[in-house]
Fold these 2 entries.
Entry 1:
Amino acid sequence: MSILKIEKLNTYYGKSHILQGVNFDLNKIGCLALLGRNGAGKTTTLRSIVNLTRPISGKVLFNKIDLKGLSTYQIAEKGLTMVPENRGMFSSLSVLESLNIIKSNKKEWDIDRVLESFPQLKTKLQNNSASLSGGEQQMLAIGKALLTNPKLILLDEPTQGLAPNIVMELIEILKKILKEKISLLIVEQNINMALEIATHISIIGKGETKWNGSKREFKNKISLHKEWIGI
Ligand SMILES: Nc1ncnc2c1ncn2[C@@H]1O[C@H](COP(=O)(O)OP(=O)(O)OP(=O)(O)O)[C@@H](O)[C@H]1O
Ligand SMILES: [Mg+2]
């Protein structure tokens, strides 16, 4: 069962050829961690998958559906949603307002269920979302993603700037989400965090896929990958 298959993705920003052949396959429910150095093209890969930046060539297949030509919104309706790097906060909105603007199709996740999963948010419903701590903002962003009832969530450096204890909490949250049969594609600089949760690893360097494999294969040969992941 292919969840997400990326084939020969090529993306430009203006005249700069940024993605020059990105390929990977998440072939069963799980978590793929996309690793690579600064500027390797990780964020551009996520943006290209949901057509925030349109790839010039290549294929993105989500549950075998070709996403070519679909808007980011239509892609979210199909069950693929992205939590962007800045966590997509609406600073002037309260926590409750931020959740309310997501049109939940009320299949599995509604606001009550999200608040049960993130009790910390429950006590801050009227607070301005910009006033939340980094960890709470990440929870709100994930909560908003869950309201779209996704089958796959893309997360761009979810642990960036979070204290170690909050990172642990986030890992537990993401593991629970995986148990709900929702797949994850995580961009991470924190290799340990990625190894905690990933089932598959993809390494990108200079806009090109350098390696794909299981977490076990990756761990066995970690020294081979140092050049591209910067450890
Ligand atoms: N809007 C843009 N216009 C032009 N070039 C861009 C734009 N955004 C990113 N780039 C360039 O594209 C390349 C890939 O950037 P990208 O943000 O995808 O990398 P990344 O792997 O996510 O890096 P980081 O680890 O720093 O987040 C970099 O060289 C970057 O300078
Ligand atoms: Mg990035």
Note: The chain has a mean pLDDT of 93.
Entry 2:
Amino acid sequence: MIVVIDREGVEHHLEASEGSSVMEVIRDAGLPVEAICGGQCVCTTCHVYVDDKWKDKLAPMQDMEQVLVEDSGSYQDNSRLSCQIDYHESMNGLKVTLAPEY
Ligand code: FES
């Protein structure tokens, strides 16, 4: 399960299965994440902010993700591209907030 705060501040608890990316979980729940590139780490439309409690527990960013997210115009030090976060059970309760629309 992941917790997603949408752009209106509403909290959603979404079932997540191992092997899915966080972007896929958010998109498949019908929340407004465009994910134009389909998870190829190209578009930045899956940008989220990771709750402080979680940000150091995730696998570190690869170089391409880092460059893209820093160029997104709404970068924070807890920014991630949700397509680059693969969900697994140890992440149960992961909390993210959708970044402003690109
Ligand atoms: S879906 Fe395009 S960068 Fe994540």
Note: The chain has three helices and five strands.
